[in-house]
Structure formats: C-alpha cells, structure tokens
Write a sequence for this structure.
C-alpha cells in the first residue's frame, strides 16, 4: 500500500523540493500552499501523515494542528519550522504534534521521521509468534503466559525497555479464550493528555470543539478481544479514576455522553517505570494499581537469560538474512564472542538493531568484528583485560546506554529514539544534557 502524505508549505520552491523527495521515496503526495487549502485537502483526501509549515497566512501551522487533533487525532502531524521558531514547534509538540523538522530540511531525517510517524499509526509487525529462549526463566515466562491467558484477570507486564513486553502481551492475547478478537494497543505516553480520554473511551458529536461526529474509543474497538495499555505509568492522574471504573465495572462512558456502554475485554498493561515508587509519591492510584496488577508478568533482561543469547542471535541472523536476501550469511567466531561479551543495556531490541545493521553492512557472507559497533568491540577489549567497569550512578548508566544505542544506529536520532522507546526530542534533550557526540 502506498502511504499518503499531505505537505502544507507556502514557500513554492521548498514545497516543490520536498514534494520531489517524497515522490522519489514512493509516497503518494498532495500539496497545499496555505493552512486553509491544507485543511480542505485533508478533509477530502484523508492522508496518513501531514507535514505543515509553522508560519503561514491566513491559517498557520498551529491552527492546522488544532484542526487535526480534534478532527483526526490518529494522523501524525510533523511541523516544519525555521531555526528561530523552534521553541514554538516544541510547544506544538506538547499540544499534540508528532515531531518537528528545522529548515533547511535534511532529506534522510525527513524520511526517517515520516517512517516513524507511519509506524506509530499501526501495531509493529511481530518478529515471531513465540518468545525466543529456552532458559529456565523464559520457560517460566511462557508458562505464566499460558496460565494468565486462560482467565479474564488483568495482567500487568513489567520489565526494562527492549525486553519484549508488547510481544508478551500479544502472546497472551493469542493464547486467550478469544484469539480471533481484536488486539488494540494504546501507548499512553504517545498521546497528548487532553486527547487520551477520547482515545480510550471515545466521544460523541459536539463533546468539544472539533468533535464533528461520534468517535469510537479503544475500549469499544477492543470489545470481544484484548486492550493493551502500554506505558501505563504515563497515564495522567486525573484520568485514572475513569480507567479504574472501566477496569472494575467493564463499563465505559464516551466523552460528552451520559450513557454507559458494557464492554467485554481482557485488559493488559505494561510499564518500565517503578509503579511502587509512583504509589509512594501519590502519582499513581493504589486502587487502580491493584486492579491492573491482578496477576503480574515480569519480562527479564538479557543478562538474566542464561543460555538464550545464541538462540536470539541465530533468530535475528536468520530473520535479516532472509529479509535482505543474504540467507547464507554467518558470524565469524570472533564476532560471536563479541556479541556474547556485551552486556546489552538495550536488551533484545538493541540486539535486533545491531544484527540488522551488521547484515546490511556486510558485503560478503561473513559478519566480521568490523561490521559490529565499536562499543561492542570495546566491551570485548575490557573483558580481555579482566576489568569490569560498572557505574553505580544511574546518570552514568543512562549516558552509556544512549551513547551505545546512538552508535549502533549510526547516530540516526530518529532510529535510536525508536530503539529506546522514547521520542526524538526526549533523545535530543538527553544528548544535550550529557554532552554526547560522535566518537
């Protein structure tokens, strides 16, 4: 399927340049010279992603954003801005924009952000129908998934970033009593707080400015199946009582409506945050926590999965060998040692990224050490000296993780942000905070 991109830009020359870049990338592109023309095209054409200039007349990019967040909140909006108005673009992100790009626009960054925006519209493809691993701890995880799937109890899935929490949620759904039903994922951290209630419970026509028609929420769409509330620790406190009611009573009330609706859904949630600490800080309700945490599934990090490393490496090697038509590709013995010596702070997600890049960069049939990130080679050199360097400072560990993932992603910030499960602008902030630069 060809994805549809709406480009709203009042500079004729820049609009044509960006249009050619997008057409060359095989996107279906419509353009508009101002905000009003862009909104008119949006209503008729229903694009998958919108790129809009910030400073336009008579309607500017903020007004286009306002139209989108009320009339079509599922469509990501990317702001194009000059350097002098970056601060306004950042505020636009807080108001619901997906991301922003500064002019002059970097071609690769443009295409990377569009790919990220398109990916945000739909559930990511599964790497496998099963969780890879034969270690005792992963066998226990699979046993728990089977047990938890057979009941209607809510399941809270915890674990570090990159450990496979969504894959576990999908496995629970596939083993549940209604695997043919819908699986609806809501990322509570990715949706602006003021839109999250409507996204979860829906709204009726006239509920707020821009609500021109009734809209079905995630709970209604998940009826007869499973709803997966990802990043539940980011749910705003003021919305938690309404979610508690939905979990307890299996009843929802759309925004603006006085009528409740009965729902039949299995409720799964996940977080990498310390909910116990949030309970103590009164930023997460205790009654909601216990309702969501009827049963608890913890996804272990790679460092606790003794014996699974080779299985995971072989799995991803086979996956990307097939994807890039390099089915005969293998790892040199020294490369395998390097991968085994690394601590994998980004867990399975980081490993997947490293092997994908190694398969792509390898011109022959053997992945040699030079095809792996230098951070992994440095880890091996430290191991040879029998020196273990462990930072006890969380800030140091975070800095090391970000530097490692950036290097694995060849310093592509959009790709690194996806790998770590954070926004690109959060990553930018961390890079500036820690003074991280290319090695």
């Amino acid at each position: 399927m060809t994805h549809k991109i709406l480009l709203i830009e009042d500079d004729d020359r820049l609009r044509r340049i960006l249009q050619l870049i997008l057409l060359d990338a095989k996107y279906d592109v419509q353009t508009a010279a101002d905000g009003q023309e862009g909104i008119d095209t949006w209503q008729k054409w229903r694009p998958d992603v919108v790129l809009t200039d910030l400073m336009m007349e008579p309607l500017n990019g903020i007004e286009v954003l306002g139209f989108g967040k009320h009339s079509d909140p599922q469509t990501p909006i990317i702001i194009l801005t000059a350097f002098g108005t970056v601060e306004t673009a950042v505020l636009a992100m807080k108001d619901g924009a997906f991301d922003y790009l500064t002019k002059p626009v970097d071609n690769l960054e443009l295409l990377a952000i569009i790919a990220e925006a398109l990916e945000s519209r739909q559930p990511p493809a599964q790497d496998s129908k099963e969780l890879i691993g034969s270690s005792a701890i992963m066998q226990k995880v699979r046993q728990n998934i089977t047990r938890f799937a057979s009941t209607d109890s809510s399941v809270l899935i915890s674990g570090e970033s990159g450990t496979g929490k969504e894959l576990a949620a999908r496995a629970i759904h596939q083993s549940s009593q209604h695997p043919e039903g819908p699986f609806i994922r809501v990322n509570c951290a990715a949706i602006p707080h003021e839109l999250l209630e409507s996204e979860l419970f829906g709204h009726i026509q006239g509920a707020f400015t821009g609500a021109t028609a009734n809209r079905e929420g995630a709970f209604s769409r998940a009826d007869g199946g499973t709803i997966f509330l990802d990043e539940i620790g980011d749910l705003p406190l003021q919305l938690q009582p309404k979610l508690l009611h939905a979990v307890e009573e299996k009843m929802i009330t759309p925004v603006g409506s006085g009528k409740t609706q009965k729902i039949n859904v299995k409720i799964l949630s996940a977080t990498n945050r310390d909910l116990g600490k949030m309970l103590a800080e009164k930023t997460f309700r205790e009654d909601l926590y216990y309702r969501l945490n009827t049963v608890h599934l913890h996804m272990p990090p790679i460092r606790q999965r003794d014996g699974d490393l080779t299985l995971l490496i072989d799995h991803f090697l086979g996956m990307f060998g097939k994807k890039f038509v390099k089915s005969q590709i293998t790892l040199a013995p020294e490369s395998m040692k390097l991968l085994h010596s690394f601590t994998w702070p980004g867990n399975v997600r980081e490993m997947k990224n490293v092997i994908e890049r190694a398969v792509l960069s390898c011109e022959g049939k053997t992945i040699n050490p030079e095809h792996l990130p230098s951070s992994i080679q440095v880890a091996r050199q430290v191991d040879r000296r029998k020196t273990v360097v462990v930072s006890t400072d969380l800030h140091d560990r975070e800095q090391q993780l970000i530097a490692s993932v950036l290097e694995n992603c060849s310093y592509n910030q959009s790709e690194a942000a996806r790998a770590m499960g954070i926004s690109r602008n959060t990553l930018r902030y961390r890079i500036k905070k820690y003074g991280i630069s290319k090695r």
Q: What stands out?
A: The chain has three domains: 4-120, 136-300, 303-434.
